[in-house]
Amino acid sequence: MTEPDAYLALCTHTHLFPGARCRLQGLPHPAAFATAPEPIEVHLRFSDGTATAAELHPESPTGPTLTVAAYTTAAGTPIDDSTWTVKGIAQKQDEVELTIGTPNRAEER
Question: Please, are residues 37 and 56 in contact by the beta-carbon 8 Å criterion?
Answer without folding.
Answer: yes
